[in-house]
């Protein structure tokens, strides 16, 4: 009798710089990877392109494509190249952003464009934009005021009460994810949220109505990689339990099954707060607060110190994710 082993399906959801770190380290493992990428970013080159062309901001998608591509380093460097000329249009733009914008017009939507790009770039896995249209992030602050736009919300430096997303083009219609996104969540063995900005990278995906519903219904283990540092204008003074509480409250259910928490201390005076101006202070550990939300807590050294900043060590995080997959591998062994 031959034994066929199920290839675990891992879905990673988020945006910003944290998502590619996890994906790059996952790529070398025997898992079926799906990246679900936020489409509510309005900053930098992505935001400028969005102002001129009605497409989803391409920056996060570009970085995820590169993290999962199997092409040669020189092609990836070209795709990531950011023009430094003085030309009024090209200056500051990444070449990959322009390619994604062009494909979005050619294929009449970001979802089909990214699937085409994934084939061109020989992506190992699946990359799904969270929605097939540009979304706007909205926030209500503790003082009752509201703002629209990721960069504006972060720059306000006020305590965020809740966030939600709306369509940039159809204000009266609630955004929906395409079937492929929902099927990936429902069929997953493991769903990984983060690391990344809580309100502006992770929650925008979860606030899409059918994505949130799928997370409430999926039988997959939902794992949250808690941030190492609090973020100015978003999570100042937050503990790890506060991060999980915000996620669960937005989803109206205790959805987070397992949380990965870094307990290695960031050395005093190491962080260059001028360079990393979003970082505030190290997230404090609140084990009881996490357990009160029915979380399994895995606390360890997940820290990488580099360039006078504190980040997740992608290899250490993914090693733990693979340990968790290993705990349930026996469920997937079948005989033929």
Automatic annotation (TrEMBL):
Keywords: Cytoplasm
Gene Ontology terms, MF aspect: LPPG:FO 2-phospho-L-lactate transferase activity
BP GO terms, sorted: regulation of cell shape
GO cellular component entries: cytoplasm
CDD domains per the UniProt record, alphabetical: YvcK_like
Pfam families: CofD (PF01933)
Subcellular location: Cytoplasm
Role according to the record: Required for morphogenesis under gluconeogenic growth conditions.
Listed PANTHER family: GLUCONEOGENESIS FACTOR-RELATED, UNCHARACTERIZED PROTEIN YVCK-RELATED
Protein family (similarity comment): Belongs to the gluconeogenesis factor family.
Protein name (Swiss-Prot/TrEMBL): Putative gluconeogenesis factor
Species annotation: Secundilactobacillus similis DSM 23365 = JCM 2765
């Amino acid at each position: 009798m031959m034994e066929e082993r199920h290839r675990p399906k891992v879905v990673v959801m988020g945006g910003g710089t944290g998502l590619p770190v996890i994906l790059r380290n996952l790529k070398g493992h025997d898992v079926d990877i799906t990246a679900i990428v936020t489409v509510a970013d309005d900053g930098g080159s992505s935001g400028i392109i969005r102002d001129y062309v009605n497409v989803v901001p391409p920056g996060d998608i570009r970085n995820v494509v590169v993290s999962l591509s199997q092409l040669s380093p020189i092609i990836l460097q070209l795709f990531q190249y950011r023009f430094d000329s003085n030309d009024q249009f090209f200056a500051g733009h990444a070449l990959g952003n322009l390619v994604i914008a062009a494909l979005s017009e050619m294929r009449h939507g970001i979802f089909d464009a990214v699937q085409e790009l994934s084939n061109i770039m020989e992506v190992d896995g699946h990359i799904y934009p969270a929605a097939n249209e540009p979304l706007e992030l909205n926030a209500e602050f503790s003082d009752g005021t509201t703002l629209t736009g990721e960069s504006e919300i972060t720059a306000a430096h006020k305590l965020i009460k809740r966030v939600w997303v709306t369509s940039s083009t159809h204000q009266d219609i609630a955004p929906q994810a395409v079937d492929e996104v929902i099927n990936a969540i429902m069929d997953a063995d493991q769903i990984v949220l983060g690391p990344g900005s809580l309100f502006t990278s992770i929650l925008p995906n979860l606030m899409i109505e059918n994505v949130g519903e799928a997370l409430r219904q999926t039988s997959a283990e939902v794992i949250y990689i808690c941030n190492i540092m609090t973020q100015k204008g978003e999570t100042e003074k937050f503990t790890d339990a506060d991060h999980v509480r915000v996620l669960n409250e937005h989803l109206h259910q205790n959805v987070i099954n397992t949380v990965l928490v870094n307990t290695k201390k960031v050395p005093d005076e190491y962080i260059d707060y001028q360079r990393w101006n979003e970082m505030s202070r190290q997230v404090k550990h609140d084990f009881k607060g996490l357990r009160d939300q029915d979380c399994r807590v895995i606390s360890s050294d997940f820290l990488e110190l580099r360039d006078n900043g504190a980040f997740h060590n992608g290899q250490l995080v993914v090693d733990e994710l693979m340990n968790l997959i290993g705990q349930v591998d026996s469920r997937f062994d079948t005989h033929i």
